[in-house]
Predict the 3D structure of the following.
Amino acid sequence: MRNIFENKKEKRKRKNRNNLKIILILVLCISIILVVFLLIRTKNDNNVTEETSSNSENIEEQNVIEVILPARKEINDWRLVLVNKENPLPEDFTIELENIDSTKQFDKRAIGELRQMLQDMKSFGISNIWVQSAYRSIEYQKTLYENKINDYLNRGGTMEEAEMLTS
């Protein structure tokens, strides 16, 4: 009887060792694949960097003034306006809107690009993406803010906590 238990115990040990060997081989194979992938990617990135570097050096040497001036002009580009708590929109700001769907609106100047991007994603089989939050009027944004404050207050928070968490 003792022999039977020892044989079963020995078989389990061998099976565990074999499983461990298989896991180690898999980890080794995955590691090798990752290293090869990273080496190939690094080589490709270096080639692109070298080409870009040599091209940009030529451009810089030939057109130093031309390269600097357009960057200054882009600051006034309507597409590059930072709006947040510290950088509010000007009081006289207006925007021409167009509907994305029955409930959401978007800046008319950029809606063509947005629609094209959504269409391109669909043509590539990406269907689980959508416009979640588009244009919000100041009044609607204030309503959302107040609702969130009230939500925190209803949960038992103080006004100071609610304002801090909402902000």
